[in-house]
Amino acid sequence: MSMPLLLACLLLAACAHRPAASLQELPPLRLSPASLGQTISVQQRLHFSFGAQQRELDALLEVDGHEVRLLVLALGQSGVRLRWDGRELQQQRAPWLPPAVRGERVLDDLQFVRWPAEAIRAALPEGWQLQQSPGVRTLLHGGTAWLVATELSPQRVRLENLAEGYRLEIESADGETQ
């Protein structure tokens, strides 16, 4: 195994750590691409934090009325390619990618941060609520917050997954088209 590939494996393994048992199973969103209501094409830097561990990945995101496409890169190598057409999630995963990196969770995090609150609320099962105030979006169950997205600036959002114990900061490059 080459050194860049080995480093990428270690990076993603550290980023993908998932507790053996989540504190709370988060509901899947699986929102249609059209329900976003806009077209997006953006390059992003992803900053993952798991306890004291921190890692960075790059991502390319495109959304139109028909499909969500996401490419996640580690050290310049493709780790995950996702395509979501509103019915089927297609994933292409690098052989070195740890099984804990789940395309379904990546899609749900993306949709929680970017999709309109009304679309998210319509997809939530009974017992779940979405609260939104200026710059903050919170997913609650039984009065407890399990997922929180905070807008830090127009180009930067922090997502805290309290159910699975990680934090993700998404920094969009200038030139985002909507």
Automatic annotation (TrEMBL):
Species: Pseudoxanthomonas wuyuanensis
UniProt KW keywords: Signal
Domain of life: Bacteria
Segment forming the signal sequence: 1-20
Pfam families, A to Z: DUF3261
Stored InterPro entries: DUF3261 (IPR021675)
UniProt-recorded name of the protein: DUF3261 domain-containing protein
